[in-house]
Amino acid sequence: MKDIAKILPVEGYRVLLRGSLPFDYTTSLTHLYQPLIGIHAVSLYQTLLNELDFQRNTVFQTHHTLMNYMDLQLNDIYRARLKLEGIGLLKTYQQQSNDHRAYTYELQCVFSPVEFFADDMLTQLLYHHIGQDKFEMLQEHFQLQTNEKGTNITAAFNEVFQTFQPHTTGLDITAGNQQAEENIPSIDFSWMEQMLASRMIPVKKVLTTANKRLIPQMMELYDLAEYEVEKAVLWALTDENTLDPKEFKEACHDLFQSKHQQAAIRLTEKTEQAGVEPEYQPTTKEEQLILKLEKISPKQLLEDLSNGGQASGQDLKMIREVMTTQGLPSPVMNVLIHYVLLQSDMKLSKAYMETIASHWSRANLKTAREAMAFAKNQKSQSQQREKKRQNYRKPASKEVVPDWFKERKKKKPEVPQHNPDTEQNNEEFAALLREFKNGK
């Protein structure tokens, strides 16, 4: 990866700090963050932090100065910067002036050890990076420091003061916790709400504010599909129908290991950084459809195909059961839904869907592209078998044909041959795309 082309030594930078650092931030950096992002990223954070004392107004320093301070090549500094951005410790802003570029590096406050262990995703990552023994040692050490202070009996704001026209019901004192959550994608919980309601499980007891933060974090960390997260939630429910966070994390980890053959959970650099390369733009209608089916959820697909109407609970339940039973990823399930709707006059038949799903599951399809190609191939083979049966049943002609008619047929100009199977497939996929666009 040619990182050196992304930034030049002569380009300037300045540093800002958002918020105030906790007194034990250095411990967090060396013992909690460093195992995740490496020594170069931690060194860059500390160097930029100390640069604040040397800045004069808004004068920009060059990256060549930073290279000298850290004794690192610029591509190593660039990679360290990306790691800080990814973990939530740095925001980068670019300014363009004539032919020159300059950057503003806004440092985000490091979590204190207590805040770090309150973040589910960071703690799970640390656990997998340093192992159970070291993790439990650190956790016990910082919990012991907290417990030594005794029970927290501090009075809350509304217990001491009152106002005539209160504008808020409370104060937001956890703004710092947002730094690691900004990179976690938000998800639509309506699919899970419907699943819980269908099983007579109280939704509000399961989908609490804390759990709504935990679920997408584990979904991202362990690369789980919606139906897999659903399994993990059901496994982790207590007798009182509440979600046990520890059991839920273990269930997510078990699902990951079963899917990835005991692979280790570790932070690794992507070979192509997200946002650096231009996004792929499909050039054909079929490519457009495949890209959409890769990205959206089955629920979104149903709603788009019904002109934005709400997907019925019965259809969602049917799809959820098929996905859970056969273990189909969402992109493959989307192709299956499209295929069944096309073959069944835009109606979902559970029996028909289950038959195809079991076949596709045995074929181990993982992407929408694979499912699309597999469906086209199966359809083509089916049509060829049907033609053979028709030719076999067709009676031999006993009609006497004159010689002059045979000669005329021989002189008939040749017409380019068309493959009806290919034409029909193309028409079907064009129809699918029209349905999808009309739904939007």
Automatic annotation (TrEMBL):
InterPro entries linked to this entry: DnaB/C_C, WHD_DnaB
Keyword Repressor in annotation: no
Protein origin, superkingdom: Bacteria
Entry keyword set: ATP-binding, Helicase, Hydrolase, Nucleotide-binding
Start and end residues of each stretch annotated as Disordered: 374-440
Record-annotated DnaB/C C-terminal domain positions: 307-373
Keyword Lipid metabolism included in the entry's annotation: no
MF-aspect GO terms: helicase activity
Domain Replicative helicase loading/DNA remodeling protein DnaB N-terminal winged helix residues, every copy: 13-230
Composition bias, Basic and acidic residues: 396-406
Family (UniProt): Belongs to the DnaB/DnaD family.
The protein's name: Replicative DNA helicase loader DnaB
